[in-house]
Amino acid sequence: MTALFRSAAEASSNPVASPGAATTPPATSVTSTSRATAGSQSVAGRRRARAAVVLGGLVAGLVAMFLLALAVGSVSIPLDETLRVLVGNEPHDPRWTVVIREIRLPRALTAALAGAALGVAGLQMQTLFRNPLADPYSLGVSSGASFGVAAVVAGVGGSAGVFTAGVAGSGRFGVVVAAAVGAAAVLGAVLVLAQWVRSVVTLLVIGVILNSAVSSLVSLLLTWTAPERAVQYWIWSLGSFSGTSNSDLAVFTPIVGVGLGVALLTVKPLNALLLGENYARTLGLRLRRVRVVTLVGASVLAGSVTAFCGPVAFLGIAVPHIARRLLGSADHRLLVPGTLLTGALVALACSIAAQLPGTDQVLPINVVTSLLGAPIVIAVLLRARAAAAGAA
């Protein structure tokens, strides 16, 4: 009996053993929970504030870089005169109106659109394949476009004047159509294979192999091409934001807009894929559909840029990493607009550098983008190696 009373007394003094006491958590537990909640809210608030500041800075920087791209070149135009032309007024020198509206404005718009397109496409591919070195051209879209242009050069290049840089009309249209058809053919092959492949890693390997195969066909075509035509293809392959006319932009702009719209619609699925395919599947995500939509969106963006500007290198790899470092977040609700703005800003900066302001010389755009992108890719590899060593 004494033992029975002793156990009852112990139970009443123990809050865990007492049913009534179990419903009232200790004060220390409530305090720690409230502190954790307040801490998480504070961190989220700081992240939102940082994102707002970074995105605002990117918008301001993009506007400034765009105006700079219109003002500088072989002939510098005062900023106030540049603004006068943009708002429709006549500048002091009438020639500046032609220079800005017919040459520099289309070039700047092309650079901004191409940078935004390649940056967002690279972000999509890196997330889909979970590979920091994936880029918009990983699946061979660029090689397909190059094959189309090489076919034009080898078939009807010199005699019909089809391949002439910056020429409007049927010649320019023929090159763009050939590049678009070649890119679409490779994309179609990838999408067919994607229906039979479950692993994105396998799909990436297939894309790399397909890229190499199509590139070998391009080399074969150029082997049978007259040397002067092969030189023209080589110049095209170096990339350029120049040569696009207002009529080209009327086609290029809506295509890029559709691709960017698709990217915005896939923000939530891409966030789910960050945690792995198994987790995304448990959330009810249809992986095959997401994969196809992402591949189509990224390929449309990359293919359109290649068709109008040539294969522009490194922007698709480097820009997403720059945006991640600036935003300090992996959330695609922030990364997609951040990458879009960063890509446009970086492409405009590369375009300005390629013009060699104050001189009559022009560098191929791939020379500048490679000098920018190569150090970033090397840094990514070194960070990945350091992270792997730390995990081991």
TrEMBL record:
It holds the Pfam family FecCD. The keyword Transmembrane applies. Its main location: membrane. Residues 15-42 have a biased composition (Low complexity). GO terms for cellular component: plasma membrane. SUPFAM superfamilies: ABC transporter involved in vitamin B12 uptake, BtuC (SSF81345). The keyword Transport applies. It is a multi-pass membrane protein. One of its GO terms (biological process) is siderophore-iron import into cell. This is Iron complex transport system permease protein. Keywords: Cell membrane, Membrane, Transmembrane, Transmembrane helix, Transport. Belongs to the binding-protein-dependent transport system permease family. FecCD subfamily. Residues 9-42 are annotated as: Disordered. GO terms for molecular function: transmembrane transporter activity. It is found in: Cell membrane. The chain crosses the membrane at residues 51-77, 145-168, 175-197, 203-226, 247-267, 292-322, 334-356, 362-382. It comes from Parafrankia irregularis.
